[in-house]
Amino acid sequence: MSILEAIILGLIQGLTEFIPISSSGHLVLAQHLFSGESEHLFLEWINIGTVLALIIFFRKRIVRIITNILRDRDYRLASNIVIAMLPAGLIGFLFADVIESNSFFGSVWTVVVMLFAVGVVMVVLERLPKLSPVVDESALPKGRALTIGLAQAAALIPGTSRSGSTIIAGRLMGLNAARAAEFSFLVSIPIMLGVLLKVSVKASDRAYLMDNFAAIAVGNVFAFISGLLAVGFLMRYLEHHGLAAFGWYRIILAVIIALVLILS
After folding, report:
1. d(Cα 89, Cα 230) in Å, to the nearest integer?
2. In the chain, count of helices (H) and strands (E)?
3. Torsion angle of alpha carbons 192, 198, 199, 202, nearest 10°?
4. What is the pTM of this model?
5. Which of 49, 93, 113, 238 could bond to 223 as cystine, CB 3.0-4.6 Å?
6. pLDDT above 70 for 230
7. Is the pLDDT of residue 102 over 60?
């Protein structure tokens, strides 16, 4: 992989991991444009940059969560994060090899369908019925936290968007858009760390890192910078807006890609 490709993929990873337009979908499309195939290990290794961006952006919130546990014995938010991360974490761990080897998960048509379907949900989201409002993430009943976690598991399908699926579920479970996004990102931190742990313990994955160290390092730098900017933008945006604009983007992109595939 060239350094230019690594820079482009790093920028895409950082921007689309947090903005709910699907990082996996955009990265599958970009890699198909570059080489015609998806290089999943590169995408997993450049999670380092995006998870660092999240940790730095939410560092004060993370410290408060730890303080609540150690000083106040308040486990409400921490337990909700654990409950919400379990479905995606377990499915990803148990079926990682199937997901990586199955052509369905690397298919451009899979990306197109999920971009369109989730985009439609985003456009109509504010008109859908929602459960009773919840003040913040720590006040979520456990069943609602689990529902958000199940929505995150659906994001294993490229084109879905981890942040998009969990923000949608959070809104339906009674959180406002900004709190739903914050909970989505807090839940994604242990999931992303788990992905990095998985590739770190496997000898062949570590060998891939050493063989492609320069490209992975450059990709992570750009993923970190663009990710920090993206999460800051989205948190500010969702204080006053919903997801409809991102939904329309997804729908338009899906239609364009479908037309190119059909006509080519």
Report:
1. 24
2. 14, 0
3. 180
4. 0.91
5. 49
6. yes
7. no
